[in-house]
Amino acid sequence: MKYMNKLLKIGLVATLFAVAFASCVPQKKMLYLKDAQMAAENISKEYVNDRTIDYKLQPGDNLYIRFLNTIDERSAASLTGYMGGNSSTNTMSSDASIYLQSYTLDVDGNIELPLTGKINLKNLTVDQAKEKLQTEVNKFVNQTTLIVKMSNFNLTVLGEVLHPGMYKVYQSQINLFEAIAMAGDKTSFAKNDEVKIIRQTDHGSEIVTVDLGQADILSSPYYYLKPNDIVYVEPLKIKQWGFTTFPYSTVISVVTLGVTLYSIFMYKKGGQ
Q: Are residues 254 and 229 in the same domain?
């Protein structure tokens, strides 16, 4: 009898320890930008990162091009209509309208304007493309200013985030934390130290692993994302069987089951 009581107690204690300590996600694994020295000394630290917009245009990219004439509005409207229909009155209410109102680089990296013909923009930044287009347009029309922007800055965020999917970015640049925030932030099972960025290159794709838990990510060349980047937040191994918070209901259920079994055993023992 004493042996059985001791065995039940050991089993219950072992179960409680296993549930409480082995299956909860430690808080330190969930933190961004950990820096023990900075926290201890209560100091600020600067992380240098040159915010350069160096994305090179590639075949399949879409450019929104708007033509403004400085002479008068009628000339601007006439020029805009002639140069492809990108007028200031057009509204970009959907992805389809953005696509239809933009110019797509063909397989060779060319776009074709009604007035100038084909112009190659491959491997140019948006600013360089604007300068080249402006030079070509000036050969045919005077007093015209061009507005050139990327119209298909797409980002894909997958893995341990609340809302994985592909997102449209309507700005020239976005950083890694902004992208994760756009996807609703990471879940409690996210693996901070192994976030993968998949990026297109001239020779294919590259995969880079970054650590969101370290503050030096702010100085990484991969802190700012580029069009068509894929961000994959890996899950912790504990996700297969773990808990994000202390499982009070599970513990109570285990204890209740143990007490019930013990009571049944004692009842049967007393009836013998």
A: no
What is the DSSP-derived secondary structure letter of residue 49? -
E-assigned strands of the chain? 62-69, 103-104, 110-113, 117-120, 144-150, 154-159, 165-168, 174-175, 190-201, 204-210, 224-225, 230-235
What is the β-pairing status of strands 224-225 and 174-175? Answer: antiparallel
Domains of the chain: total: 3
Residues 67 and 108 both lie in one domain: yes
Mark whether 130 and 183 lie in a shared domain.
no
Predicted model pTM: 0.65
Residue 57 maps to a domain: no
The helix-helix angle for 2-22 and 248-271 (nearest 10°) equals 170
Per-residue buried b or exposed e for 69-85, using 16+ beta carbons within 10 Å of the residue's own CB? beeeeeebeebbeebbe
pLDDT tens digits for range 173-228: 889 999 999 999 998 888 888 899 999 877 778 999 999 888 888 888 899 998 88
Task: Identify whether residues 232 and 176 lie together within a single domain.
Answer: yes
How far is it between the farthest Cα atoms of the chain?
A: 108
Report which of 271, 272, 269 is spatially closest to residue 8, judged by C-alpha positions: 269
Q: Which domain holds residue 187?
A: 27-52+153-240
CA–CA distance, 89 with 73 (Å, rounded to integer): 12
Q: For residues 151 and 85, what is the distance between their CA atoms, to the nearest angstrom?
A: 16
- Write down the H helix ranges in 42-191: 73-82, 95-100, 126-138, 176-182
CATH of the domain at 86: 3.30.1950.10
